[in-house]
Every structure is written in C-alpha cells, then in structure tokens.
Specification:
heterodimer; A: 142 residues; mainly alpha; B: alpha+beta; 5-stranded mixed beta barrel
Chain lengths: 142, 142
C-alpha cells in the first residue's frame, strides 16, 4: 500500500514538474532565414573570395558549426511551417534531409580548419545538395 | 548530436553571431540560396542576347554575366542558374561556356528591378539549348 502511494505521489510530481524540453520560438522559414541561410552563405562565399586571415577562417568554421547544429533546430518537435502546418519532423524523408546537414556541416568545418578555399568549394557540393534535396520536396513544390 | 535539444551552447550562439559578423566582413552576394519565386518575378519574362563577360561556377547557383547592348548602351546582366551539380546532370560542364561566347538567355527578372535574372534556358551560338533551372525549384520548367 505504501509502495503504491509512493508511486502515485511520484507520478504526480513528475506530471506537475515543469517541462525541460526546449520549445521552438520561430517558424521553420524564420529559422532558415535566421540561421541556415546566413551560415550557408558564409560557406558558399568562400568560393568567390577566400578568407584573408585566421579570424575570417574562424567565421567560416563557426558557420559550419551553425549548419550542423541547425539540423537539431529544424528537427525540434512543435515547430510550425510559415503556413501554420507542423514541420514534418517524423517524416522519414524530412528527417533524412535534415540530418544530411550534419555531415555537410562537418565536412565544411574540416575544410575551413584546413584553410583551403578549394576544399571548402568541394564541401559546398554536399551542402548545396542537402539544401536542394529538402527544398525540392518541402519548399518548391506547389 | 541530433538527439540533443538543450539550450544552444555558447559555441552555437557564438557561431550564429559570427555568421552575422561574417556576412559583413566577407561581403556576401545579395542573391544567394533562396527560392526562385522569392527573388524573381515569374510574370516578368525577359530574353537577353549578348556576350559572356564572366562565369562564376559555384554553389548554390552558377552565375553568367552577359553584356547586353540595347539602344547604344551596354548593360551587364547577372544570370543566375542552377548549381554546378544540377547543370552537370543537364549536360553542362565548366567548359561548356567561355568568356566571349554569344548567348541568348531566357529568364525572369529580379523583383528588386536590378539587372539580375533567374535564367531558365541558355541558347548557344551553335543553337544548342540547355535548361539551366533546377527541376522542382518552383520556377518554370522546360
């Protein structure tokens, strides 16, 4: 009996505890424009103009980290698309597309750490492809 | 990594802040990774004829710059196409075009009125026509 009461109390305590799960603050398009677009553009821009010094290379490294981490952001449950529909975070293809940002960002980080414009140029193939694969299905189709 | 949905770490916040700084420091082209309809007016079709002055073979979009003579004046137009991988799948390579080539570009004007077009078709002097948009990018298809 005491054990049952203890379990009930524990269950109540858990039910009333404030949720520690992070909640999305912005819709998917805003995350794209606020996080992924600027970070990916920093990486893409290396193709046109190589960073001049360590500080500028560090900016590219940070952008690659931002791209990798953005995979988590766009897979957060509860986020909406700009049309008010939920982001399909459980759809297999969406998950696959989002997770492709991780190796793309990781490769770009390694390339930036090597301070090689050519190697960064190579990594933009996988980054661009990761973006396109998802856009083709979830952004551009009417 | 993908399972982590905690508060963004200081490193990630630094990455985003660095991205913003980087945009200023590195000088990002205004037209970068975006949907066709966001940047271009699909009701404003335009045909440009002229000579290629510059080619930027890069992700996420290849740019052809074309000098177009009209009424005794020459204007240099930036013609945005799909990325290198997509163009390669559609029969283009980095050597398909060269500076000085005469081309006809069919595309759609930028919403901001600048001399930038979303190129959908390029016709070479020998009559070869190539679709240069991306399949499923929301823009007109061949």
């Amino acid at each position: 009996m005491r054990a049952l009461a203890t379990m009930l109390l524990a269950g109540l305590a858990i039910a009333q505890a404030p949720s520690k799960q992070a909640q999305p603050a912005w819709d998917l398009k805003q995350v794209m424009r606020g996080v992924l677009l600027p970070n990916s553009n920093i990486i893409f821009s290396v193709q046109l103009k190589a960073p001049k010094n360590d500080m500028e290379w560090r900016t590219v490294e940070n952008a690659a980290i931002g791209v990798q981490e953005a995979a988590n952001l766009i897979l957060m449950s509860g986020r909406l698309r700009s049309n008010g529909q939920p982001v399909p975070v459980l759809a297999a293809d969406y998950m696959k597309f989002a997770k492709a940002l991780v190796p793309a960002g990781r490769d770009c980080l390694k390339a930036a750490q090597k301070k090689s414009r050519d190697i960064v140029g190579d990594c933009t193939d996988s980054l661009s492809q990761a973006c396109d694969n998802c856009h083709n299905v979830y952004r551009d189709k009417p | 990594m993908l399972g982590s949905l905690q508060r963004p770490s200081m490193r990630v916040r630094t990455a985003v802040f660095g991205a913003i700084l980087g945009l200023i420091a590195v000088g990002i082209p205004a037209v970068a990774h975006h949907s066709v309809s966001a940047e271009f007016d699909l009701s404003k079709r335009i045909t440009l004829q002229g000579r290629i002055t510059k080619i930027e073979w890069m992700n996420p979009h290849v740019y052809l710059y074309v000098d177009v003579n009209s009424g005794g004046k020459t204007a240099n137009w930036a013609c945005e196409t799909a990325g290198p991988n997509t163009l390669a799948r559609q029969g283009w390579s980095q050597t398909s075009l060269k500076i000085g080539d005469q081309v006809t570009v069919v595309g759609y004007r930028a919403r901001d009125g600048s001399s930038v077009v979303s190129a959908r078709r390029v016709v070479l002097a020998n009559g070869r026509k190539v679709f240069v948009g991306s399949p499923n990018d929301g823009g007109p298809q061949p």
